Amino acid sequence: MAAIIVLDDVIDAGVVIKRILERKGHTVGVFTEEEEALAHVAKKKPQLAILDMKLKKLSGVEVLEEIKKLSPETRVIMLTGYPTLETARESVRLGACEYCVKPIDKEELERKVEEALAGLDAG
Amino acid sequence: MIAWPKLSRLSFRTKINCGIVLIVGLITIPLAYLTWRAAAESLRAETRKRGMVLSENLAMRVSDAMLSMDLLRLKNMVDELKKVDDIVYAFILDRDGNVLVHTFKGGFPVELRTVNAPQKGAPHIQLLDDGREYIDDFAAPVVIVGTPFGTTRIGLSRTKAEAGADRLALMIVFYSATAMIAALAPSTLFARRVTERINRLKSHAEEVVKGNLDQRAGPRALFSCSSMLACDKTACPAYGDRDRRCWLTASPDQRGEGPESCRGCPVYAAQKGDEIQDLAETFDVMAVSLKTHLDELRRTERVLKRQERLLRTILDATPDLVCLLDENLAYLAVNRAFAAFVALDPQDIVGTTDRDIFPADEGTAMHDENALVLTRSRPSDREVSLRRDGATVWLHVVRVPITDSRGKAIGILRTARDVTQLKQFQEQLIQSQKMESLGKLAGGVAHEINTPLGVILGYAQLLQDDVPTGSQIHADLQTIEKQAKVCRKIVADLLGFSRQAESAKIEMCFNNSLMEAITLVRHAFSLEHTAIVTDLDERMPIIYGDPEKLKQVWINLLANARDAMGGGGTLLVRSRLYAAEQKVTAWFADTGPGIPAENCSRIFDPFFTTKPVGQGTGLGLSVSFGIIQDHGGSISVESPVPHGFFDSVDTGDAPGPGAVFIVDLPLDHEETIGGALPAGPMEG
């Protein structure tokens, strides 16, 4: 099973993802602060990061860029309540493997996470 | 009665001649009479004196012969006297009054013997009338040594003596007549010359009356004043003018007090004529100034006419309804557009009021507004809507009060412009602005609500795993999940409506896009007795658009039509390519009950729905509107369906009035092609 971090400015949104993924046996860390999340990534290098597009100080794309610098192996799923083509393209360019629109279904989330981790395994 | 010609009607020449005759006559006739009288008098006196002398002389000479009674001598003496022309007779009487000798040839008239006699020893004269002539009879006494011895009688013819005086008078008359005739010739010549000039003036005046102002009545000068005086004032009207005299034509500053100030001028001295020439020259100047004034008037008239025509053309060419009302609010003038609007002849409108030519309610309202503008004397500016042929016509009416020089309102100029189209544009603009702001709002709301919605959905799904399937809690959680998903759909629709999601436009076949949507729903529709009939343009128009989004629009419109028909019916989808206008149009017509007119304008408003609560979000048409706008097109609705729209289609029996949605999409995509983006991974 994998180590996953969730970064969302709304703690409840992160917690519900953590609850869903923990049932699947993953270890999930929930963050609302970008610095804490990045420090965690730098130290623990988790397999997967689920990032909200709208954060407290930075945008999800900026955090994605940082994570890819700190831990290129970490897979990233972007989540947004406000999809735009620019952010989608930018995310893909920076190496996000998924770009999902909120609110996401439990099944869909589980599937996307599995796919992302499978890609990691394959990679 | 003799009809004497009126003196004033006589010709000038006759008058002058009459005058001459009268003058000569008045001088000569009394002169002749007086001369004749004076001559006759002096002749008579002369005759008497002569008769006296002759008779006394005879009396003295006969004394000898009487003494001696020498009758022969006496006879010779009287016969001698008889030789004198005017002596009619002579005879001698003796102291007893017996005739001694006489000169009568046919015997002595005895009564003559006693008619005259010397008075107191002195000769006596007696006038006799023998029936043929007057005779002065002279009786002188023959005295010898103081004793009367007889009487000598001599008869002198007064008539013969007076004949001389008559001859004299006749001669005077003859010479006077000759002088008169001699005077008439030059007077006639003079009168003719004067009348000729007057006649020329007259004919010239007649020409002027006829309008010929170019003729000259006065003589042409040999030299112009400027050449005589070597004057270089070329601006002077008299400069170089030989037709008119400088003292009449020179500019006021040149001529001073007119002719009076010219007395010493050589030009005046050389060219000044008599009164008739003055008159003719003044006449010429008058004709020229008249001509100048007339030319100026004609020019002004032409300018005025042209301006009037121009103004009329402008007024008639303008599509605005222009009219002029007087102080009683009756029409003074209207332009062609106004006359066409009220479908009347402009002449028939003049004099009427708004109440006469407009329907009762409109006319009264307009009349009251006119009256208000007139009494307040302030312009008014308002938009009014009128019903014409079942359609609403919006007019922007401007009323401007017209005031006289004292500021009193004497009428109104009213212009009305048809702003129906502008109103429609305004409504469209308002609609799209409403859409835009609602879109922004919806986008913001969607953005904010997605996170909490995700939490609710997540927990609802999560908790379902914790409770046994079939339990009440599981069912409750399913309800929460279902309603959360409804919310998610609304938010997704809102996002679509706000067009925050980018389009992925490609070149695509318009007909294929329509057919894809139709194929998708055709089976489901047929179950609800709704038949879809297509009539697509065979030229297969290619547009530039987002296939997914357009398909969403088509499905939206199709579903709307099906829902509208309820119990089933016919749905006609038609497409046409307008190459000239670079657009393609699609119609989605149904045979349903149609859309009430008041809903037609609101049907694209977000959250506007006529469907029962829970069946429609009211976003479908708004989203469609947004998508079509995003493609640079337009979408509109018409209800009922235009007559004949379903003609080529079998719609079964008694179709309803129906509604038709019309979608216009441009073919031209020059602007959007540069921003074309490949479809991104945007699965939701």
Q: pLDDT under 50 segments of chain A (min length 5)?
A: none
Main β-sheet, spatial strand arrangement of chain B: 2-1-5-4-3
Please report the two chains with the greatest interface, counting residues with C-beta closer than 8 angstroms to the partner's C-beta: A-B, 30 and 31 residues
Strand-residue fraction of chain A? 15-25%
How widely separated are the two ends of chain B? 134 Å
Major sheet summary line of chain B = 5 strands, antiparallel
* Low-pLDDT regions of chain B: 671-684
The end-to-end distance of chain A, rounded to whole angstroms, is: 16 Å
Which of globular, elongated, flat, extended, rod-shaped describes the shape of chain A? globular
- Number of DSSP helical runs of chain B: 19
Residue share in β-strands of chain B: 15-25%
Number of helices of chain A: 5
Commentary on this structure:
The complex is a heterodimer of chains A (123) and B (684). Chain A is an alpha/beta fold and 123 residues long. Helices cover 50% and strands 20% of the residues of chain A. A five-stranded parallel sheet of chain A has the order 2-1-3-4-5, sandwiched between helices. In chain A, β4, α4 (85-93) and β5 form a beta-alpha-beta unit. The longest helix of chain A is centred in the C-terminal third of the chain and has 17 residues, at 106-122. Chain A is globular and about 35 Å long. Chain B is of the alpha+beta class and 684 residues long. Chain B is 50% helix and 19% strand. Chain B contains 19 helices and 17 strands. In chain B, the strands form four sheets. Chain B has a five-stranded antiparallel sheet with strand order 2-1-5-4-3. The chains are: A alpha/beta (123), B alpha+beta (684). The interface between A and B is medium-sized, with 30 and 31 residues.
